[in-house]
User: Which sequence fits this backbone?
DNA sequence: GTCTATATTTTGATAGAC
DNA sequence: GTCTATCAAAATATAGAC
């Protein structure tokens, strides 16, 4: 059942992605939904709450997707490959929402900001744990775990910026490139002389 | 001579970085400069023009810095190392301006937008040329040049997000990590079965 | 170069009818 | 659940005095 609340959500994702949160007005969202701006406030208490809802759902689904993809993967290298693949796939398939979740943190109220940052930390810690295990098992080079996890996540976000669903490359082909790049950058022998954190 | 125009520029960089372009008002900029908002318009014709000025100067200096660092580097691997090092150094030393240049494109007028995108393309093409030469010389694995250049630039931007000038790591130590990561990801043998663009 | 005063538009949000 | 009408505040920008 496609409710008006869902429609507002979809329209807001489109507009926040194209113009940014602050540059998008409630009237604009209402206009593209075919209703008056006052009617928006029946479904959401504020403009900020629409943004918060988008970010919350996106982060929860991103983390759920990752956990699902890691389930049953035991080998440490396979786990990192699966994690990168999961991250890239989600970001390509959900381009607009992940862009908003990455760039519109400043539009949130302090309380909502903290909640989203906590969810983001949770997600990052899954990656950091894999890197840590890989270093311990001497599969990965031992470097600063936090720096590497940010590097990997940021690198994999790159695809979402230029990816075109109508383009010639498939999601999996792109994910494979990032996967190989990350594993090549991570593996032992790359960082001589640097000690574990 | 620290002119008022310079002061407006510095204050705007700080505010656009902290709050975003659309969330920052002309009154706020004026307030932190110790003048009235009307006085801003003596120095700049519009708020958008302040943003444009920041982006233009940043892109010009970024490209100039890269060219200077590449000058005299002949070996292909040395050129890529120097390019990554230059990119990371600039982004860590000029955190706020590069963040604005990367994230506030949507605040520009169409004409100014095109001008900045052109400068950005110019910069990226220097990286793409190095990758292309590296593939031709069979030093790098032969993969999609555009994808790799975006991946490298995005990856190297990661540092600017968390870097703290007061922190324990030096700019050069961080640049070394990214340099090694990129070269590890790029080098031949990583991408079996993928043909050149 | 900076000021005061103001024009114009638009914003997010609320009240109350239907 | 959507409407009309409206509020109060804030925005960018301009005019003209000093």
Assistant:
């Amino acid at each position: 059942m496609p409710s008006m609340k869902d429609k507002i959500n979809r329209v807001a994702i489109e507009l926040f992605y194209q113009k940014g949160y602050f540059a998008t007005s409630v009237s604009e969202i209402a206009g593209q939904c075919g209703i008056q701006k006052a009617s928006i406030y029946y479904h959401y208490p504020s403009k900020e709450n629409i943004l918060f809802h988008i970010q919350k759902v996106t982060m929860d689904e991103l983390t759920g997707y990752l956990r699902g993809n890691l389930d049953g993967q035991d080998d440490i290298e396979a786990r990192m490959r699966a994690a990168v693949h999961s991250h890239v796939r989600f970001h390509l398939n959900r381009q607009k929402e992940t862009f908003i979740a990455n760039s519109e943190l400043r539009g949130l109220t302090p309380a909502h900001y903290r909640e989203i940052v906590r969810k983001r930390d949770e997600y990052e810690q899954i990656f950091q744990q894999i890197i840590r295990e890989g270093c311990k098992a001497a599969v990965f080079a031992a470097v600063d775990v936090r720096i590497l996890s940010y590097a990997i996540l940021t690198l994999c976000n790159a695809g979402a910026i230029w990816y075109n669903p109508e383009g010639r490359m498939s999601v999996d082909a792109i994910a494979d490139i990032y996967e190989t790049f990350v594993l090549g950058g991570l593996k032992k022998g790359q960082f001589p002389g640097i000690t574990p954190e």
Residues 110-136 of chain B form the longest helix (27 residues). Residues 25-27, 37-38, 41, 46-47 of chain B lie near DNA strand D (CB under 10 Å from a C1'). The radius of gyration of chain B is 19 Å. Chain B touches chain A through 37 residues (CB under 8 Å).
